[in-house]
């Protein structure tokens, strides 16, 4: 892994792995990440697949996020959990290449999907008559969303190609009697500046530029919401409910973005410092070593916290999650009720629903609530 490429000739004396606390702490953290990530993202995928009412534009993007997280959890976490446990990479060069490429694919899909989600929320709130996003509720919007999600995966795979081709097992010599190998994504034959270039490009393409675009969308969205609240007549209750529902989805997406930014910031700070500070190898100490480990763990932690964030912000996902994992109300009855959830809402207005923001007044209100269900308020 690129997190293991720090110099072994720094100011501090080399300490064997069995004497380091991270040797025992990191595997436990990764075991927790693996269990929570598989259960959380697996449940999210199952909810999307089994319930047609959940298949809207924002949920399609969230499904893509869950699949990307499952990819990195299954293909990377079991193998990279030993980076701080054993001194040499034990899995061979093929697993090294696959692990590095899968990590880059997952990061690319995550950040590009979050950008697409932010753009979709912006157009849904600022331009609700647009037919190319969730508000349209049309097949055209669905096709465009699926095509965008597939395009994001293709782009992420293309950007991960250098990691797959270039990753190899690099030998580090500690002293005349100690040598070990690590999985390293920057081959020396590609030039001395290749590592610096890639670190900078990763920071720009996978972090700073997407977050700047997302921030712009949210600033414009917040400005529009403030102005629309001031100018909206009180009698437009249906429009107000619709705007509240869309704001709720936008806040959920914002939670995902903040989690992503927080999880990958320590890693990018360390990598930029190590590759661009001329005295990094001499200045490397216990503080930078700790930041490197925190960045390493947090970058993988991002793959299991999205379902937690969705559980905290979405009532409908929380109810489905509890039904699947906590066996509430009986699994068989719950599944049948869930499968007919969308139909039952269309057939009766007096029955209580589990979806917030659904009005229970007139037939017009019912029609509006059904449209809200298809417009992303059922996250």
Automatic annotation (TrEMBL):
Tagged with keyword Disulfide bond: yes
Keyword Cell membrane among UniProt keywords: yes
Record-annotated G-protein coupled receptors family 1 profile domain positions: 40-310
Matches recorded under Pfam families: 7tm_1 (PF00001)
Species whose genome carries this gene: Bicyclus anynana
Residues annotated as transmembrane: 24-49, 61-85, 105-123, 144-165, 204-228, 249-273, 293-313
Record localization: Cell membrane
Membrane topology designation: Multi-pass membrane protein
Keywords: Cell membrane, Disulfide bond, G-protein coupled receptor, Glycoprotein, Membrane, Receptor, Transducer, Transmembrane, Transmembrane helix
UniProt name for this protein: Neuropeptide CCHamide-1 receptor-like
């Amino acid at each position: 892994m690129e997190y293991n490429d720090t110099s072994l000739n720094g100011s501090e004396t080399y300490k064997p792995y069995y004497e380091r606390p991270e040797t025992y702490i990191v595997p436990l953290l990764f075991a927790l990440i693996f269990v929570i990530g598989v259960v959380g993202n697996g449940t999210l995928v199952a909810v999307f697949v089994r319930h047609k009412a959940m298949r809207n534009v924002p949920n399609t993007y969230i499904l893509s996020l869950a699949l990307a997280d499952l990819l990195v959890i299954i293909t990377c976490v079991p193998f990279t959990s030993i980076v701080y446990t054993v001194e040499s990479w034990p899995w061979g060069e093929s697993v090294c290449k696959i692990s590095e490429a899968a990590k880059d694919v997952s990061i690319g899909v995550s950040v590009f999907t979050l950008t697409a989600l932010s753009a979709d929320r912006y157009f849904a709130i600022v331009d609700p008559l647009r037919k190319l996003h969730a508000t349209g509720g049309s097949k055209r919007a669905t096709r465009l969303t699926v095509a965008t999600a597939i395009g994001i995966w293709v782009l992420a795979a293309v950007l991960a190609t250098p990691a797959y081709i270039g990753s190899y097992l690099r030998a580090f010599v500690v002293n005349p009697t100690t040598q070990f190998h690590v999985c390293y994504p920057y081959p020396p034959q590609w030039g001395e500046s290749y590592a610096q270039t890639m670190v900078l490009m990763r920071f720009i393409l996978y972090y700073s530029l997407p977050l700047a675009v997302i921030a712009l969308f949210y600033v414009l969205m917040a400005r529009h919401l403030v102005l629309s609240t001031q100018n909206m007549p009180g009698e437009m209750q249906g429009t107000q409910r619709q705007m509240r529902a869309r704001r709720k989805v936008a806040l959920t997406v914002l939670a995902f973005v903040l989690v992503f930014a927080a999880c990958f910031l320590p890693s990018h700070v360390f990598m930029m410092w190590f590759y661009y500070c001329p005295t990094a190898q001499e200045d490397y100490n216990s503080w930078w070593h700790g930041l490197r480990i925190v960045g390493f763990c947090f970058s993988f932690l991002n793959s299991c916290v999205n379902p937690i964030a969705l559980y905290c912000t979405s009532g409908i996902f929380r109810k489905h999650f509890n039904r699947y994992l906590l066996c509430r109300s009986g699994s068989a009855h719950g599944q049948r009720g869930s499968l007919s959830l969308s139909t039952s809402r269309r057939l009766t207005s007096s029955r209580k629903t589990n979806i917030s923001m659904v009005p229970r007044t007139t037939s017009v209100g019912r029609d509006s609530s059904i449209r809200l269900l298809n417009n992303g308020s059922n996250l």
